[in-house]
Request: fold
Amino acid sequence: MDDFAALRQRMVDNQIRPSEVTDHDVIKAFLSVPREKFVSPAERPFAYADRDLRMGGPAGSPRMMMTPVHLARLVQKLNRGPEAKVLVIGCGTGYSAAILGRLAGRVIAVEEEDALAVQARQLLEDIGAANVAVVSGPLVAGFPAEAPYDAILVDGAVEVLPDALIRQLKPDGVLGVIERDDRLSRAMVYERIGDDAGKWPLFEASAALLPGFERKREFVF
Reply:
């Protein structure tokens, strides 16, 4: 049987710490959440590998978990703390929401695939993440009913980021996402400044594209 606690420690020591993740609370969160519970059964032996992994949910689901390093570096840039309210877009089986549940006062996690949302609720209950609520709905809409948020994590890649998500941030709120186009794929941070938003790149990154965030393709005849 795999010693998942030892593998979790190795993930933090060999992947996360050397990747400019220095926040002790973030490191403790990654040490405390059992990632192997949130991946599909076939992926459990690789739960702590530095690669995208298939989530649970229905057979054939294309949804993938972000690599631990990319997730940790994005989470480190978000506003956190016991008073913070955080939104997770595309929570899947709930791993990123569980991490943020260790770092924020309240987490709202949005998932549009019903089987994944059901699984996320059960897994989060199993690990005692009582401050995380999973809601069902289209990912591109976010969850305006609980807005504004101190931080938003988009748990996957986008080609287009809707302005509606930025508007769900508080003033000075921060959104972390991986954006990709035809040439580059980068982790980005957006900060709401009044009615506008500033943005800056963090690092080159890749992740599976979330449904609904695709760029409309133009056909040339």
The radius of gyration is 16 Å. The beta strands are 53-54, 64-65, 81-89, 104-111, 132-136, 149-158, 169-180, 185-193, 196-204.
